[in-house]
């Protein structure tokens, strides 16, 4: 009899537990009167359009604070009374509508830590327009993002969970410096023999924030563990290219080009002051005192054709170092420093496929230009960064 009583009690507990689960499901899993919502994903994988193009909007240095209460810096006196973070938001929404990008890359200092007491709320405000757009996007950190209430690891983890973000905290199961080192592949056009292959690779790297070297403060730099990862991934991707060449035989595929995105420029960018550039060199290059060999690595792996930077807001030039273009995005955000009368700006990157007899082939050309936040949303400094050269 006692055994039956115990079993009966266990049954009651079990049924109560089942009922509680069903109740939670029925009420949409409401906790604290708020429904749990799942992350919204964009259409994946990243892919070239039917017309053989893939367009990237680079947004550098938003320096977002708290929204309407965060004032602008370095604008004309007539603009200042009504200028806030909302000008940054408006510019981002306008460019999304105008350029209709396939992907948006944020290259650091997305928020300005000292101007917000809630990093999460600031991030939601900064990335709000792109989340609403439904477009895929990714970000790296700058040197100011972590100066509020979240560490760099927490920031990248939070960013990776936002709607339509394809950002990653780091490669899984790899010991690597920094947070926000990852790669994304862009697949061939629908219906082509490359529709299931990545033909444009996007590398994202954490260039750090501040470091102390021999007692002297300097900016961060990309570490050897990150360069080792970059070399390994690049080698693996090029190996896949060769394997695909073997399979398709009479449909040869050249090594897929790659682009890299990080915040702080490398020391060699200073050399471009003495060379021909496209755009303007308006301020000194604020980089690390440590040269970790990033340029040497990029030259050796051979697939990276251009690097896109932030950090120095009034620089907006592209210059070539040993066959690789280094391009500033130009200051985007109104709470970041700039120059009064100099419009905020963004960079557009367009990759175009070459046309085969029957379908789209690999990447033929990579171009770039800038858009200004002026009355005409002026398009300036259009240039070709790279073109496919058939082997002879």
TrEMBL record:
The record lists the membrane-crossing segments as 12-31
Q: What is this protein called?
A: Probable inactive purple acid phosphatase 28
Q: Which domain of life is it from?
A: Eukaryota
Q: Which organism is it from?
A: Theobroma cacao
Q: Which GO terms describe its molecular function?
A: hydrolase activity; metal ion binding
What the record says about family reads: Belongs to the metallophosphoesterase superfamily. Purple acid phosphatase family.
Give cofactor(s), names only: Zn(2+)
Query: Which locations, inside or outside the cell, does it occupy?
Result: Secreted
Query: Pfam families under this entry?
Result: Metallophos
Keywords attached to this Swiss-Prot or TrEMBL record, sorted alphabetically, are:
Glycoprotein, Iron, Membrane, Metal-binding, Secreted, Signal, Transmembrane, Transmembrane helix, Zinc
- For this UniProt entry, what is the primary localization, expressed as one broad class? secreted
GN (gene name) = LOC18589412
Q: Which CDD domains match?
A: MPP_Dcr2
Q: Which GO terms describe its cellular component?
A: extracellular region
Q: Where is the Calcineurin-like phosphoesterase domain?
A: 54-314
Q: Does the keyword Membrane apply?
A: yes
């Amino acid at each position: 009899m006692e055994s039956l009583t115990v079993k009966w009690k266990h049954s009651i507990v079990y049924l109560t537990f089942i009922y509680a689960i069903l109740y939670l499901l029925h009420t949409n899993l409401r906790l604290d009167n708020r429904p749990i919502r799942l992350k919204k994903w964009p259409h994946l994988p990243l892919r070239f359009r039917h017309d053989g193009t893939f367009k990237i909007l680079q947004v550098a240095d938003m320096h977002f604070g708290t929204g309407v209460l965060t004032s602008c810096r370095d604008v004309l006196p007539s603009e200042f009374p009504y200028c806030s973070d909302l000008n940054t938001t408006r510019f981002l929404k306008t460019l999304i509508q105008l350029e209709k990008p396939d992907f948006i890359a944020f290259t650091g200092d997305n928020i300005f830590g000292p101007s917000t007491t809630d990093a999460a709320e600031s991030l939601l405000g900064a990335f709000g327009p792109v989340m609403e757009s439904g477009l895929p996007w990714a970000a790296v950190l700058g040197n100011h993002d972590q100066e509020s209430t979240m560490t760099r690891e927490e920031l990248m983890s939070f960013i990776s969970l936002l709607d339509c973000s394809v950002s990653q905290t780091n490669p899984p199961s790899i010991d690597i410096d920094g947070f926000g080192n990852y790669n994304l592949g862009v697949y061939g056009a629908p219906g082509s023999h490359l529709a299931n292959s990545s033909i444009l690779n996007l590398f994202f790297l954490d260039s750090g924030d501040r470091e102390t070297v021999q007692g002297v403060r300097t900016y961060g730099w990309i570490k050897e563990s990150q360069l080792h990862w970059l070399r390994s991934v690049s080698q693996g991707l090029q190996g896949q290219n060769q394997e695909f060449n073997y399979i398709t035989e009479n449909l040869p595929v050249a090594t897929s080009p790659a682009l890299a995105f990080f915040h702080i420029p490398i020391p060699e960018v200073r050399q471009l002051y003495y060379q021909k550039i496209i755009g303007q060199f308006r301020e000194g290059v604020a980089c690390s005192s440590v040269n970790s060999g990033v340029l040497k690595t990029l030259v050796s792996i051979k697939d990276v054709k251009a690097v896109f930077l932030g950090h120095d807001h009034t620089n907006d030039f592209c210059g070539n170092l040993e066959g690789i273009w280094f391009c500033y995005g130009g200051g985007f955000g109104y709470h970041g420093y700039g120059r009064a009368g100099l419009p905020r700006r963004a960079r557009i990157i367009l990759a175009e496929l070459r046309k085969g007899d029957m379908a789209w082939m690999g990447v033929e050309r990579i171009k770039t230009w800038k858009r200004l936040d002026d009355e005409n949303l002026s398009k300036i400094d259009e240039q070709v960064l790279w073109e496919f050269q058939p082997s002879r």
